[in-house]
Design goal:
heterodimer; A: Alpha-Beta Plaits; Alpha-Beta Plaits; 2 domains; 5 helices; 8 strands; 34% strand; B: Rossmann fold; six-stranded mixed sheet; 12 helices; binds NADP nicotinamide-adenine-dinucleotide phosphate
C-alpha cells in the first residue's frame, strides 16, 4: 500500500505500529526520498503480508494515526533482482543512478557490493533492486541498462523464464 | 542407401569411422573428398583404407579429382557436407549443397554457414526437388534438437527457447567460477585441452552461439532473422570478481542464447543463473530448453561437439532419410 503521512519524527513508526497490531508482517518499506517540500508530507510504500480480513481493521487504525492511504494494491509481491556490472565504475560514480531509480518511487536499490581491483582494472559490482511489481522492476532495470550503455559498463542480468 | 562425404576433418572422419564400424546400417559410402583430392566407387569405398591413406599422406584420394567431381558425378542418394563453416560467405558449402540438390540428392550437413545464411533458399530448393535437407548436427552437436522439434514435439507451438549452445564458453565460465581464474587463464586452459581454437573470437564473443540461435529461430518460426539481428554480448570481458559476486548469492554466470518471438527477443549474453538451474552444468556440454504450449518446458542436455558425437547427429539424419525416402538398403 502507498501511504502519505506528515513528515515529522515518529510518524513512520506510528504508521507501522498498527500493522503488527492486526497481525501483519512487514516485508519492505520504500520511502520516496524527497518529500514534497510544500505540504510537508512523506510518501511511503509498505509491502506487507496480512492475515485475511484484517485490512479494514488496519485502514481504520491508520486513519486514526492521521495517515492518508493513497493506494492499496492487494496481493502485491515484492520483486528482488540482482545484476552485476563490470567496468570502470570508480571513475563514473553511481549516486546519480541510485537517485534515478529511487526517484521512481516504486523501486529501490537495496545493496551495492563492489570489488576493488588494481588501479586501472575494471571493477565488478553487484546491485540489488527491490520493487513492488514486475513493471516497476522492469522500469528500474531499464534505467540501469541505459546508464550501463552510457557509461560503457557490461551489465549481466539474471535469466528469467522466457515465456 | 549410398552416401557421399565431402570433408574429412574431425566430423567427416567420425562419420566415416562409424559407417565402417556399423556396417549393418545399410549405409554405403560411394564418394569421398577433402580439400585436395577425391575418390569414388559405386560399389562401396574401403573406408579403412581411405582413412589410412588420409592419415599417412594428408589426402584421401586422387589429386586429379575434386569435391565438385564427387558431387556432380558420383552415384549416391545423400550427400554429407562437413567442410569448415564460413559464416560470411557460406562457401564452399552452399555451392556443394546446391549442386547436390540440383541432382535431386538428399543433403545432410553439420555446416552452420549455409543454413544460417541461405537456409530458406536451400530448404525451398530441396522441397522443389522433392528431396530432404537435414542439419541436426549444426545446433548442439549430438543433442537431437531438430528431431525433438519435428517429431517428439510435433503439434506443439514453440513459445520460446533458451540454452547453452557453446561448449567452449561453458568450459571457460566453469573454470573461472571453480578456480577463480581470469578469463585469459581459463581460455589458455581451454586451448590446452583442445576445446578452443587458436582464434577463439567466434566462440567467446558469442558468434557461434548466435549463428545456432539464428538456425533454430528460422527452423521453428521461419521468421527470416539473420546473425546481425542477434543482440550479442560475449564472455571475454567477464572478471573473476563478477563470478564471485554471483557465487555469493548462490548463482553463477553462463552464456545464454535465447529467443522469444512474442517479446521480439533474440539474444546471446552472459546471464546470472541459480546454481540449481537446469542450464547450469560443468564443462563443454550443451543444453537447450524449449517452452511449448502443450509440453511446457523440455530441457535437453548433451555433448555439443566432438568427432563421433557429431557423427551421431549426421547418421541420425541419414537413417531418417533412408526410412522416409529411400527404401532400398
Ligand atoms: N568439430 C565438431 O565437433 C563440430 C560439431 C558440430 C558442427 N561442426 C561443423 O562441421 C563442419 C566440419 O567440422 P570439422 O571439425 O570436421 O572441421 P575440420 O576438422 O576443419 O575439417 C574440415 C574438412 O573439410 C575439408 N575441406 C575444406 N575445404 C574443402 C573443400 N573446398 N572441398 C572439400 N573439402 C574441403 C578439409 O580438407 P583437408 O582435410 O584437406 O584440410 C577437412 O577435411 C564445420 O562446418 C563445423 O562448423 C563441427
Amino acid at each position: 500500500m502507498k501511504l502519505e503521512m506528515k513528515d515529522s519524527p515518529g510518524q513512520l513508526v506510528a504508521a507501522l505500529k498498527p500493522i503488527s497490531e492486526v497481525g501483519g508482517n512487514i516485508i519492505a518499506v520504500l520511502h520516496q526520498r524527497d518529500p514534497d517540500p510544500d505540504n510537508h508530507t512523506l510518501n511511503v510504500q509498505i509491502v506487507l503480508d496480512l492475515p485475511k480480513g484484517r485490512l479494514d481493521n488496519l485502514v481504520a487504525l491508520l486513519k486514526d494515526q492521521g495517515v492518508r492511504i493513497q493506494r492499496i494494491g492487494e496481493e502485491r509481491l515484492l520483486y528482488q533482482r540482482s545484476v552485476i556490472l563490470i567496468g570502470h565504475l570508480m571513475h563514473t560514480g553511481f549516486s546519480d543512478t541510485f537517485d534515478q531509480i529511487d526517484s521512481t518511487g516504486f523501486a529501490e536499490m537495496t545493496e551495492l557490493v563492489m570489488s576493488m581491483p588494481a588501479v586501472n582494472e575494471r571493477s565488478s559490482s553487484r546491485i540489488t533492486i527491490k520493487a513492488v511489481s514486475r513493471d516497476d522492476m522492469e522500469a528500474a532495470l531499464a534505467i540501469l541498462r541505459r546508464v550501463s550503455q552510457q557509461k560503457s559498463l557490461l551489465m549481466i542480468e539474471p535469466l528469467e523464464d522466457a515465456a | 542407401m549410398k552416401v557421399a562425404l565431402i570433408g574429412l576433418g574431425s566430423v567427416g572422419r567420425g562419420v566415416a569411422e562409424m559407417l565402417a564400424k556399423k556396417d549393418d546400417l545399410g549405409l554405403v559410402l560411394t564418394g569421398i573428398a577433402d580439400s585436395k583430392s577425391a575418390f569414388m566407387d559405386p560399389d562401396g569405398i574401403d573406408i579403412t583404407r581411405v582413412l589410412a591413406k588420409k592419415k599417412k599422406t594428408g589426402s584421401c584420394g586422387d589429386q586429379h579429382l575434386s569435391a565438385a567431381d564427387v558431387i556432380k558425378k558420383a552415384d549416391y542418394d545423400a550427400l554429407v557436407e562437413v567442410t569448415p563453416t564460413n559464416a560470411l560467405s557460406g562457401e564452399p558449402a552452399i555451392g556443394h549443397i546446391k549442386a547436390a540438390l540440383n541432382r535431386k540428392k538428399h543433403v545432410v550437413t553439420s555446416n552452420k554457414g549455409p543454413i544460417a545464411l541461405a537456409g530458406k533458399e536451400l530448404r525451398a530448393m530441396a522441397k522443389k526437388k522433392g528431396v530432404s535437407l537435414r542439419y541436426e548436427a549444426t545446433v548442439a552437436g549430438a543433442i537431437p534438437v531438430m528431431h525433438t522439434l519435428e517429431h517428439g514435439l510435433a503439434g506443439n507451438e514453440i513459445l520460446a527457447l533458451y540454452g547453452v549452445l557453446n561448449g567452449t564458453c561453458n568450459f571457460i565460465l566453469t573454470r573461472m567460477a571453480a578456480e577463480g581464474l581470469t578469463y585469459e587463464q581459463a581460455l589458455m586452459e581451454a586451448r590446452e585441452m583442445g576445446y578452443a581454437e587458436a582464434d577463439p573470437t567466434y566462440d567467446v564473443q558469442g558468434i557461434d552461439a548466435a549463428i545456432k540461435l539464428v538456425i533454430l529461430a528460422n527452423t521453428i518460426w521461419d521468421n527470416g532473422v539473420k546473425l546481425a539481428d542477434v543482440d550479442r554480448t560475449g564472455i571475454d570481458l567477464l572478471t573473476p570478481d563478477a563470478l564471485r559476486l554471483a557465487d555469493e548469492m548462490g548463482c553463477t554466470i553462463r552464456l545464454i542464447a535465447e529467443a522469444n518471438p512474442k517479446k521480439r527477443l533474440l539474444r546471446v549474453s552472459p546471464r546470472i543463473l541459480d546454481k540449481n538451474h537446469p542450464l547450469v552444468f560443468e564443462g563443454t556440454l550443451n543444453a537447450l530448453t524449449l517452452e511449448t504450449d502443450m509440453a511446457k518446458q523440455i530441457t535437453l542436455i548433451g555433448r555439443g561437439a566432438g568427432s563421433v558425437e557429431t557423427a551421431s547427429a549426421i547418421i541420425g539424419d541419414l537413417l531418417y532419410i533412408r526410412d522416409r525416402y529411400v527404401q532400398r538398403a
